[in-house]
Design a protein that fits this description.
Elements: H1 2-8, H2 14-20, H3 36-45, E1 47-51, H4 65-68, H5 73-77, H6 90-99, E2 104-110, H7 136-146, E3 150-155, H8 163-166, H9 172-191, E4 198-201, E5 213-215, E6 224-226, H10 241-251, E7 256-257, E8 268-271, E9 285-290, H11 306-317, E10 322-327, H12 337-353, E11 361-362, E12 371-376, E13 379-384, E14 391-394, E15 401-406, E16 413-417, E17 420-424, E18 435-441
Parallel strand pairs: 1-2, 1-10, 2-3, 3-4, 4-7, 8-9, 9-10
Antiparallel strand pairs: 5-6, 11-12, 12-13, 13-18, 14-17, 15-18, 16-17
Helix pairs in contact: 1-2, 6-7, 6-12, 9-10
Length: about 450
Protein backbone atom coordinates (compact mmCIF):
# COMPACT_ATOMS: atom_id res chain seq x y z
CA UNK A 1 0.00 0.00 0.00
CA UNK A 2 1.13 3.56 -0.58
CA UNK A 3 1.50 4.36 3.11
CA UNK A 4 3.40 1.14 3.73
CA UNK A 5 5.74 2.03 0.86
CA UNK A 6 6.62 5.30 2.53
CA UNK A 7 7.52 3.41 5.67
CA UNK A 8 9.58 0.73 3.98
CA UNK A 9 11.09 2.44 0.97
CA UNK A 10 13.87 3.93 3.04
CA UNK A 11 14.89 0.47 4.15
CA UNK A 12 14.17 -2.05 1.42
CA UNK A 13 16.12 -2.54 -1.75
CA UNK A 14 14.86 -0.30 -4.54
CA UNK A 15 12.95 -3.15 -6.15
CA UNK A 16 11.00 -3.85 -3.00
CA UNK A 17 10.15 -0.19 -2.62
CA UNK A 18 8.56 -0.17 -6.04
CA UNK A 19 6.72 -3.39 -5.30
CA UNK A 20 5.11 -1.88 -2.23
CA UNK A 21 3.00 0.37 -4.40
CA UNK A 22 1.24 -2.67 -5.76
CA UNK A 23 -0.28 -3.43 -2.40
CA UNK A 24 -2.49 -0.34 -2.53
CA UNK A 25 -5.35 -2.20 -4.13
CA UNK A 26 -5.38 -4.67 -1.25
CA UNK A 27 -6.43 -2.20 1.44
CA UNK A 28 -9.86 -3.11 2.81
CA UNK A 29 -12.56 -0.49 2.83
CA UNK A 30 -12.70 1.25 6.20
CA UNK A 31 -15.51 -0.08 8.33
CA UNK A 32 -16.21 1.26 11.79
CA UNK A 33 -18.13 -1.91 12.49
CA UNK A 34 -18.76 -1.58 16.19
CA UNK A 35 -20.28 1.88 16.07
CA UNK A 36 -19.13 5.43 16.25
CA UNK A 37 -18.83 5.48 20.03
CA UNK A 38 -15.85 3.10 19.91
CA UNK A 39 -13.92 5.49 17.72
CA UNK A 40 -15.02 8.73 19.36
CA UNK A 41 -12.50 8.67 22.22
CA UNK A 42 -9.66 8.11 19.77
CA UNK A 43 -10.78 10.89 17.46
CA UNK A 44 -11.10 13.24 20.40
CA UNK A 45 -7.57 12.33 21.56
CA UNK A 46 -6.00 13.56 18.30
CA UNK A 47 -2.38 13.09 19.43
CA UNK A 48 -0.47 9.99 20.50
CA UNK A 49 3.03 8.63 21.08
CA UNK A 50 4.48 5.82 18.95
CA UNK A 51 7.41 3.92 20.54
CA UNK A 52 9.74 1.71 18.48
CA UNK A 53 12.06 -0.16 20.83
CA UNK A 54 13.76 -3.53 20.67
CA UNK A 55 17.08 -5.26 20.00
CA UNK A 56 17.73 -2.91 17.09
CA UNK A 57 18.36 -0.12 19.61
CA UNK A 58 21.74 -1.71 20.41
CA UNK A 59 23.39 -1.21 16.98
CA UNK A 60 21.48 2.08 16.75
CA UNK A 61 20.97 2.07 12.99
CA UNK A 62 17.21 1.90 12.84
CA UNK A 63 14.64 -0.86 13.29
CA UNK A 64 15.42 -2.37 9.86
CA UNK A 65 19.12 -2.85 10.56
CA UNK A 66 18.94 -6.64 10.39
CA UNK A 67 17.38 -6.61 6.95
CA UNK A 68 19.28 -3.66 5.54
CA UNK A 69 22.65 -5.12 6.51
CA UNK A 70 21.60 -8.75 5.98
CA UNK A 71 22.76 -9.77 9.45
CA UNK A 72 22.41 -13.56 9.82
CA UNK A 73 19.59 -14.63 12.11
CA UNK A 74 21.85 -16.43 14.57
CA UNK A 75 24.25 -13.50 14.76
CA UNK A 76 21.44 -10.97 15.28
CA UNK A 77 19.89 -13.16 17.98
CA UNK A 78 23.01 -12.71 20.12
CA UNK A 79 21.90 -9.12 20.75
CA UNK A 80 19.24 -10.53 23.08
CA UNK A 81 21.96 -11.41 25.60
CA UNK A 82 23.11 -7.77 25.56
CA UNK A 83 19.64 -6.30 25.86
CA UNK A 84 19.37 -5.52 29.56
CA UNK A 85 18.10 -1.93 29.82
CA UNK A 86 18.41 -1.26 33.53
CA UNK A 87 17.47 2.42 33.04
CA UNK A 88 14.11 1.56 31.45
CA UNK A 89 11.19 3.18 33.27
CA UNK A 90 7.75 2.77 31.71
CA UNK A 91 6.36 5.40 34.05
CA UNK A 92 8.87 7.91 32.68
CA UNK A 93 7.67 7.14 29.13
CA UNK A 94 4.04 7.59 30.12
CA UNK A 95 4.83 10.75 32.06
CA UNK A 96 6.62 12.21 29.05
CA UNK A 97 3.69 11.35 26.78
CA UNK A 98 1.34 13.16 29.16
CA UNK A 99 3.60 16.18 29.40
CA UNK A 100 3.64 16.29 25.59
CA UNK A 101 -0.15 16.53 25.55
CA UNK A 102 -0.50 13.04 24.08
CA UNK A 103 -3.62 11.05 24.93
CA UNK A 104 -2.61 7.53 23.90
CA UNK A 105 0.48 5.43 23.23
CA UNK A 106 1.38 2.59 20.83
CA UNK A 107 4.34 0.36 21.75
CA UNK A 108 6.10 -2.22 19.55
CA UNK A 109 5.32 -5.55 21.20
CA UNK A 110 7.16 -7.34 18.37
CA UNK A 111 8.78 -5.99 15.22
CA UNK A 112 9.83 -7.81 12.04
CA UNK A 113 13.00 -9.18 13.68
CA UNK A 114 10.82 -11.55 15.72
CA UNK A 115 12.00 -10.51 19.20
CA UNK A 116 8.96 -10.42 21.49
CA UNK A 117 8.90 -7.83 24.28
CA UNK A 118 6.57 -10.10 26.29
CA UNK A 119 6.40 -13.68 27.55
CA UNK A 120 5.67 -16.24 24.84
CA UNK A 121 5.82 -19.52 26.69
CA UNK A 122 8.50 -21.86 25.38
CA UNK A 123 9.68 -19.39 22.72
CA UNK A 124 13.22 -18.40 23.80
CA UNK A 125 13.42 -15.24 21.68
CA UNK A 126 11.74 -12.84 24.10
CA UNK A 127 12.72 -10.20 26.61
CA UNK A 128 11.44 -12.47 29.39
CA UNK A 129 13.69 -15.43 28.62
CA UNK A 130 16.89 -13.56 27.68
CA UNK A 131 19.17 -11.10 29.49
CA UNK A 132 16.55 -8.56 30.58
CA UNK A 133 14.14 -11.16 32.01
CA UNK A 134 11.38 -8.57 31.95
CA UNK A 135 7.96 -8.32 30.33
CA UNK A 136 8.23 -4.87 28.81
CA UNK A 137 4.73 -5.01 27.35
CA UNK A 138 3.34 -5.65 30.81
CA UNK A 139 5.31 -2.79 32.36
CA UNK A 140 4.31 -0.42 29.57
CA UNK A 141 0.61 -1.32 29.71
CA UNK A 142 0.50 -0.81 33.47
CA UNK A 143 2.24 2.58 33.27
CA UNK A 144 0.14 3.89 30.39
CA UNK A 145 -3.06 2.81 32.08
CA UNK A 146 -2.08 4.40 35.40
CA UNK A 147 -1.30 7.63 33.56
CA UNK A 148 -4.79 7.66 32.05
CA UNK A 149 -3.54 7.16 28.52
CA UNK A 150 -5.05 4.99 25.81
CA UNK A 151 -3.09 1.72 25.55
CA UNK A 152 -1.96 0.62 22.10
CA UNK A 153 0.20 -2.25 20.88
CA UNK A 154 2.06 -2.51 17.58
CA UNK A 155 2.44 -6.05 16.24
CA UNK A 156 4.01 -7.48 13.09
CA UNK A 157 2.77 -10.89 11.90
CA UNK A 158 5.75 -11.17 9.52
CA UNK A 159 9.02 -12.45 10.94
CA UNK A 160 12.33 -12.36 9.05
CA UNK A 161 13.49 -15.52 10.86
CA UNK A 162 11.03 -17.61 8.88
CA UNK A 163 11.91 -18.50 5.25
CA UNK A 164 8.19 -19.01 4.82
CA UNK A 165 7.68 -15.24 4.72
CA UNK A 166 9.90 -15.00 1.64
CA UNK A 167 8.80 -18.32 0.07
CA UNK A 168 5.28 -18.93 1.41
CA UNK A 169 4.56 -21.75 -1.05
CA UNK A 170 7.97 -23.40 -1.36
CA UNK A 171 8.57 -23.18 2.40
CA UNK A 172 4.98 -23.91 3.43
CA UNK A 173 5.83 -25.55 6.76
CA UNK A 174 7.85 -22.48 7.74
CA UNK A 175 5.05 -20.14 6.69
CA UNK A 176 2.55 -22.14 8.72
CA UNK A 177 4.87 -22.04 11.75
CA UNK A 178 5.05 -18.26 11.36
CA UNK A 179 1.26 -18.15 11.20
CA UNK A 180 1.00 -20.31 14.32
CA UNK A 181 3.28 -17.90 16.15
CA UNK A 182 1.13 -14.97 15.02
CA UNK A 183 -2.09 -16.54 16.28
CA UNK A 184 -0.49 -17.69 19.55
CA UNK A 185 1.06 -14.32 20.28
CA UNK A 186 -2.13 -12.46 19.39
CA UNK A 187 -4.01 -14.59 21.90
CA UNK A 188 -1.44 -13.78 24.59
CA UNK A 189 -1.46 -10.05 23.91
CA UNK A 190 -5.24 -9.91 23.86
CA UNK A 191 -5.64 -12.04 26.99
CA UNK A 192 -2.86 -11.22 29.44
CA UNK A 193 -2.85 -7.43 29.79
CA UNK A 194 -6.38 -6.33 30.43
CA UNK A 195 -8.10 -3.88 28.13
CA UNK A 196 -6.12 -2.89 25.02
CA UNK A 197 -7.45 0.15 23.20
CA UNK A 198 -5.52 0.05 19.90
CA UNK A 199 -3.93 -2.77 17.90
CA UNK A 200 -1.55 -1.40 15.30
CA UNK A 201 -0.72 -4.08 12.70
CA UNK A 202 2.22 -3.77 10.31
CA UNK A 203 3.35 -5.98 7.46
CA UNK A 204 0.60 -8.55 7.84
CA UNK A 205 -1.02 -8.21 4.42
CA UNK A 206 -0.89 -11.26 2.18
CA UNK A 207 0.47 -9.07 -0.60
CA UNK A 208 3.55 -8.38 1.53
CA UNK A 209 4.59 -12.04 1.48
CA UNK A 210 7.94 -12.20 -0.30
CA UNK A 211 7.90 -8.38 -0.14
CA UNK A 212 5.14 -8.22 -2.72
CA UNK A 213 6.81 -10.27 -5.43
CA UNK A 214 6.39 -13.60 -7.18
CA UNK A 215 8.91 -16.23 -8.16
CA UNK A 216 8.43 -17.08 -11.82
CA UNK A 217 8.72 -20.52 -13.29
CA UNK A 218 10.98 -21.74 -16.07
CA UNK A 219 9.62 -19.24 -18.59
CA UNK A 220 10.49 -16.37 -16.26
CA UNK A 221 13.92 -17.78 -15.53
CA UNK A 222 12.89 -18.55 -11.95
CA UNK A 223 13.47 -14.92 -11.07
CA UNK A 224 11.79 -12.84 -8.42
CA UNK A 225 9.60 -10.26 -10.14
CA UNK A 226 7.50 -7.55 -8.65
CA UNK A 227 3.80 -8.18 -8.70
CA UNK A 228 2.04 -5.87 -11.19
CA UNK A 229 -0.17 -3.09 -9.90
CA UNK A 230 -3.53 -4.43 -8.78
CA UNK A 231 -2.40 -8.06 -8.81
CA UNK A 232 -2.50 -9.95 -5.54
CA UNK A 233 -0.80 -12.95 -3.98
CA UNK A 234 -2.56 -16.07 -5.26
CA UNK A 235 -0.54 -18.79 -3.58
CA UNK A 236 -1.83 -21.40 -1.20
CA UNK A 237 -0.74 -19.85 2.09
CA UNK A 238 -3.24 -17.94 4.21
CA UNK A 239 -2.49 -15.89 7.33
CA UNK A 240 -5.80 -16.87 8.89
CA UNK A 241 -6.61 -13.25 9.65
CA UNK A 242 -10.33 -13.93 9.87
CA UNK A 243 -9.80 -16.26 12.84
CA UNK A 244 -7.67 -13.61 14.53
CA UNK A 245 -10.27 -10.95 13.82
CA UNK A 246 -13.03 -13.05 15.36
CA UNK A 247 -10.84 -13.76 18.39
CA UNK A 248 -9.93 -10.14 18.98
CA UNK A 249 -13.55 -9.05 18.67
CA UNK A 250 -14.53 -11.68 21.25
CA UNK A 251 -11.76 -10.86 23.69
CA UNK A 252 -11.44 -7.12 23.12
CA UNK A 253 -14.76 -5.98 21.58
CA UNK A 254 -13.88 -2.28 21.81
CA UNK A 255 -10.36 -2.47 20.43
CA UNK A 256 -9.50 -0.30 17.42
CA UNK A 257 -7.37 -1.77 14.62
CA UNK A 258 -5.68 -0.26 11.60
CA UNK A 259 -5.78 -1.78 8.13
CA UNK A 260 -2.45 -3.55 7.74
CA UNK A 261 -3.49 -7.15 8.25
CA UNK A 262 -6.20 -7.80 5.63
CA UNK A 263 -9.05 -7.40 8.09
CA UNK A 264 -11.73 -4.76 8.55
CA UNK A 265 -10.10 -1.58 9.78
CA UNK A 266 -11.39 0.96 12.26
CA UNK A 267 -8.92 3.58 11.13
CA UNK A 268 -6.61 4.01 8.18
CA UNK A 269 -2.86 4.55 8.49
CA UNK A 270 -1.02 7.23 6.56
CA UNK A 271 2.72 7.04 7.03
CA UNK A 272 5.34 9.76 6.92
CA UNK A 273 4.83 13.47 6.50
CA UNK A 274 4.80 13.06 2.72
CA UNK A 275 1.59 11.05 3.10
CA UNK A 276 -0.29 13.89 4.80
CA UNK A 277 -2.75 13.84 1.91
CA UNK A 278 -6.15 15.38 1.58
CA UNK A 279 -8.98 16.24 3.95
CA UNK A 280 -11.09 13.22 4.88
CA UNK A 281 -13.86 13.33 7.47
CA UNK A 282 -15.63 10.23 6.22
CA UNK A 283 -13.37 7.57 7.71
CA UNK A 284 -11.04 7.83 10.71
CA UNK A 285 -7.35 8.06 9.85
CA UNK A 286 -4.00 8.65 11.47
CA UNK A 287 -0.66 9.95 10.25
CA UNK A 288 2.41 8.45 11.91
CA UNK A 289 5.78 10.13 11.71
CA UNK A 290 9.07 10.24 13.60
CA UNK A 291 10.32 13.03 15.81
CA UNK A 292 13.85 12.50 14.44
CA UNK A 293 15.64 9.93 12.28
CA UNK A 294 14.45 6.37 11.78
CA UNK A 295 11.66 4.73 13.75
CA UNK A 296 14.16 2.79 15.82
CA UNK A 297 16.97 4.39 17.80
CA UNK A 298 19.76 6.31 16.10
CA UNK A 299 22.15 8.23 18.34
CA UNK A 300 22.43 11.98 18.00
CA UNK A 301 19.20 12.51 16.08
CA UNK A 302 18.11 16.11 16.74
CA UNK A 303 14.42 17.00 16.31
CA UNK A 304 13.24 19.89 14.19
CA UNK A 305 12.15 23.20 15.73
CA UNK A 306 8.91 23.32 17.70
CA UNK A 307 7.23 25.17 14.85
CA UNK A 308 7.53 22.13 12.60
CA UNK A 309 5.59 19.80 14.91
CA UNK A 310 2.89 22.32 15.79
CA UNK A 311 2.24 22.99 12.12
CA UNK A 312 2.25 19.27 11.38
CA UNK A 313 -0.27 18.62 14.15
CA UNK A 314 -2.49 21.47 12.94
CA UNK A 315 -2.34 20.24 9.35
CA UNK A 316 -3.24 16.70 10.41
CA UNK A 317 -6.12 17.63 12.70
CA UNK A 318 -7.31 20.25 10.21
CA UNK A 319 -7.63 17.38 7.71
CA UNK A 320 -9.62 15.49 10.37
CA UNK A 321 -6.89 13.02 11.30
CA UNK A 322 -4.81 11.97 14.31
CA UNK A 323 -1.05 12.38 14.67
CA UNK A 324 1.03 9.51 16.10
CA UNK A 325 4.53 10.87 16.73
CA UNK A 326 7.30 8.30 17.17
CA UNK A 327 10.27 8.18 19.50
CA UNK A 328 12.96 5.49 19.48
CA UNK A 329 14.44 5.01 22.97
CA UNK A 330 18.09 4.03 23.26
CA UNK A 331 19.36 0.60 24.31
CA UNK A 332 19.15 1.64 27.97
CA UNK A 333 15.45 2.43 27.56
CA UNK A 334 15.75 6.20 27.85
CA UNK A 335 14.44 8.70 25.32
CA UNK A 336 17.04 11.21 24.16
CA UNK A 337 16.90 14.33 26.33
CA UNK A 338 16.72 16.74 23.38
CA UNK A 339 13.75 14.82 21.93
CA UNK A 340 12.04 14.69 25.31
CA UNK A 341 12.46 18.44 25.66
CA UNK A 342 10.84 19.04 22.28
CA UNK A 343 7.91 16.85 23.31
CA UNK A 344 7.45 18.87 26.48
CA UNK A 345 7.47 22.05 24.40
CA UNK A 346 4.68 20.63 22.24
CA UNK A 347 2.79 19.89 25.45
CA UNK A 348 3.32 23.47 26.59
CA UNK A 349 1.71 24.75 23.41
CA UNK A 350 -1.20 22.32 23.78
CA UNK A 351 -1.61 23.43 27.37
CA UNK A 352 -2.46 26.87 26.02
CA UNK A 353 -4.31 26.05 22.82
CA UNK A 354 -5.41 22.44 23.16
CA UNK A 355 -9.09 23.37 22.96
CA UNK A 356 -8.48 24.08 19.26
CA UNK A 357 -7.13 20.53 18.78
CA UNK A 358 -8.65 18.03 21.23
CA UNK A 359 -12.22 16.84 20.61
CA UNK A 360 -12.41 18.89 17.42
CA UNK A 361 -13.20 17.85 13.87
CA UNK A 362 -11.51 19.18 10.78
CA UNK A 363 -13.07 22.01 8.77
CA UNK A 364 -15.33 23.54 7.72
CA UNK A 365 -12.67 25.66 5.96
CA UNK A 366 -10.53 23.19 4.04
CA UNK A 367 -6.75 23.28 4.47
CA UNK A 368 -4.83 25.55 2.12
CA UNK A 369 -1.91 27.91 1.87
CA UNK A 370 -3.29 29.89 4.79
CA UNK A 371 -3.33 26.91 7.17
CA UNK A 372 -6.29 24.85 8.36
CA UNK A 373 -9.38 24.94 10.54
CA UNK A 374 -11.00 22.83 13.22
CA UNK A 375 -14.33 23.07 14.99
CA UNK A 376 -16.10 22.07 18.17
CA UNK A 377 -19.59 22.97 19.27
CA UNK A 378 -20.44 26.47 17.99
CA UNK A 379 -16.82 27.47 17.49
CA UNK A 380 -14.56 27.35 14.45
CA UNK A 381 -10.84 27.58 15.14
CA UNK A 382 -8.97 29.11 12.22
CA UNK A 383 -5.27 28.21 12.36
CA UNK A 384 -3.47 30.77 10.25
CA UNK A 385 -0.03 29.36 9.51
CA UNK A 386 0.68 31.81 6.71
CA UNK A 387 -0.70 35.29 6.07
CA UNK A 388 -0.72 35.49 2.29
CA UNK A 389 -2.01 39.07 2.41
CA UNK A 390 -2.65 41.65 5.10
CA UNK A 391 -6.00 40.01 5.76
CA UNK A 392 -7.44 36.54 5.46
CA UNK A 393 -10.74 36.27 3.59
CA UNK A 394 -12.67 33.10 4.31
CA UNK A 395 -15.57 31.93 2.13
CA UNK A 396 -19.14 32.74 3.08
CA UNK A 397 -20.91 30.27 5.35
CA UNK A 398 -24.62 29.93 6.19
CA UNK A 399 -24.10 30.90 9.83
CA UNK A 400 -23.68 34.17 11.68
CA UNK A 401 -20.40 34.98 13.39
CA UNK A 402 -21.18 36.42 16.82
CA UNK A 403 -17.60 37.26 17.77
CA UNK A 404 -14.01 36.59 16.76
CA UNK A 405 -11.16 36.20 19.24
CA UNK A 406 -7.44 35.77 18.66
CA UNK A 407 -6.50 33.03 21.12
CA UNK A 408 -2.81 33.63 20.55
CA UNK A 409 -3.07 37.32 21.46
CA UNK A 410 -3.96 40.59 19.83
CA UNK A 411 -7.23 42.16 18.77
CA UNK A 412 -8.62 40.62 15.61
CA UNK A 413 -10.78 42.76 13.36
CA UNK A 414 -13.47 40.92 11.46
CA UNK A 415 -16.23 41.57 8.99
CA UNK A 416 -18.86 39.17 7.66
CA UNK A 417 -20.95 39.81 4.58
CA UNK A 418 -22.29 37.91 1.61
CA UNK A 419 -18.80 37.60 0.17
CA UNK A 420 -17.28 35.91 3.17
CA UNK A 421 -15.50 36.57 6.47
CA UNK A 422 -12.51 38.92 6.49
CA UNK A 423 -10.02 38.62 9.35
CA UNK A 424 -7.35 41.22 10.03
CA UNK A 425 -4.65 41.22 12.67
CA UNK A 426 -1.66 43.60 12.81
CA UNK A 427 1.58 41.87 11.82
CA UNK A 428 3.08 42.54 15.25
CA UNK A 429 0.20 40.66 16.90
CA UNK A 430 0.40 37.55 14.74
CA UNK A 431 1.86 34.43 16.28
CA UNK A 432 5.07 33.27 14.62
CA UNK A 433 3.95 29.63 14.65
CA UNK A 434 0.16 29.62 14.45
CA UNK A 435 -2.27 32.51 14.81
CA UNK A 436 -5.48 30.96 16.13
CA UNK A 437 -8.73 32.87 15.61
CA UNK A 438 -11.85 31.48 17.28
CA UNK A 439 -15.11 32.28 15.47
CA UNK A 440 -18.15 31.87 17.67
CA UNK A 441 -21.27 31.08 15.61
CA UNK A 442 -24.98 31.26 16.25
CA UNK A 443 -25.27 27.51 15.71
CA UNK A 444 -23.26 24.29 15.58
CA UNK A 445 -20.26 24.35 13.27
CA UNK A 446 -20.80 20.66 12.53
CA UNK A 447 -23.88 21.59 10.50
CA UNK A 448 -21.75 23.42 7.94
CA UNK A 449 -20.47 21.84 4.74
CA UNK A 450 -16.77 22.01 4.04
CA UNK A 451 -15.62 24.83 1.79
CA UNK A 452 -12.30 25.61 0.09
CA UNK A 453 -10.42 28.80 0.91
CA UNK A 454 -9.37 30.66 -2.26
Amino acid sequence: MKTVCKRYARRLRAACAVVALGVAMMAPTAAVAAGQDRVDWWREARFGMFVHWGLYAIPGRGEWVQWNEQIPVDQYAKLAQQFNPTAFDANAWAGLAKSAGMKYMVFTSRHHDGFAMFDDGANPFTSVTTAAQRDFVGEYVKAARQAGLGVGLYYSPLDWRYPGFFFPDLQRASAEAMREQYHRQMKALLSNYGKIDVLWFDGGEADWLSFGGDWGGAEAGANWVKRPWGKHYKGGFDWGHQQVYEMLRRQQPDILINGRADMREDFHSREGEGALGAFDNQKPWELCSTIAGAWGYQPGMVPRPLEHYIRLLVNVVGRDGNLLLNVGPGPDGRIDAVQAQRLREIGGWLGKYGNSIYATRGGPFLPGDYGASTHHGNTIYVHVLKWVQDKLVLPAIPAKVLRATALTGGAVQWKQDGQGIALTLPAAQRDAIDTIVALELDGPASALNTVAVP
